[in-house]
Design goal:
Elements (H helix, E strand, L loop, with lengths): L1 E6 L4 H5 L14 H16 L5 E5 L3 H14 L3 E3 L18 H4 L19 H12 L8 E6 L1 H12 L3 H7 L8 E8 L2 E10 L1
Parallel strand pairs: 1-4, 2-3, 2-4
Antiparallel strand pairs: 1-5, 5-6
InterPro entries: His_Pase_superF_clade-1 (IPR013078), His_PPase_superfam (IPR029033), PG/BPGM_mutase_AS (IPR001345), PGM_Phosphatase (IPR050275)
Keywords: Glycolysis, Isomerase
GO molecular function: phosphatase activity; phosphoglycerate mutase activity
Length: 198
């Protein structure tokens, strides 16, 4: 069994380098983001994945990216609730860089990010896993187009990584239109490709 987790292409919020929160759900891709999405689709088509099914979060930038991927694979897109980006609560409008310079403001007692008035890393991972589980079946490859924070949370959970250490070293960071390919054997997920550009 295989699984692809991909980040959407570049959006205006990415260019501005600020947290936008749920208000960004209608933000589309930039011209560069559309080009990244097409490149991701072309690349995934070369992998000859078994039974590809394309899913996207409820946010437009993920759906636009997924449409380009689905077009390259000759399939459709299903919108999937639960794999959307983190609700950053009181951090809406804050710079991405603040996650490094003011990290203590968003660290929960478990060492994982927990945005005041928003969601935590483990909370995002739990809803992501709940959405993902019904998609998993032998002979099919779900391709889930999601978001940066959500992908990190999901991978920490799926791979059983130490959450505090993984968040601290940012090992599962995905650039725009980057993807990770996982395979499942003996009940455990294994990385074949991590955060690669399409």
């Amino acid at each position: 069994m295989k699984l692809v987790l991909a980040r959407h292409g570049e959006s205006a919020g990415n260019v501005a380098q600020v947290f936008r929160g749920p208000d960004s759900q209608h933000d589309g891709l930039t011209d560069a983001g559309h080009a990244q999405a097409r490149a991701l689709g072309r690349h995934l088509a070369t992998l000859a994945l078994p039974g590809p099914r394309v899913y996207a979060s409820t946010y437009r930038r993920a759906q636009d990216t997924a449409q380009a991927v689905a077009g390259a694979l000759g399939t459709d897109v299903t919108v999937l609730d639960g794999v959307h980006e983190v609700d950053c609560g009181a951090w809406v409008g804050r710079a991405y860089a603040d996650m490094r310079t003011h990290r203590g403001e968003v660290l929960g007692p478990d060492g994982c990010p927990a945005f005041p008035g928003g969601e935590s890393g483990p909370g995002v991972a739990a809803r992501f896993r709940a959405a993902l589980t019904p998609l998993l079946a032998p002979g099919r490859t779900p391709i889930v187009v999601s978001h940066g924070f959500a992908l990190s949370a999901a991978l920490i959970d799926l791979l059983g990584a130490d959450p505090a250490a993984a968040w601290a070293d940012d090992r599962y960071h995905h650039g725009n239109a980057a993807y990770t390919l996982l395979s499942r054997e003996n009940g455990a997920w294994h990385v074949e490709t991590l955060a690669a550009q399409g």
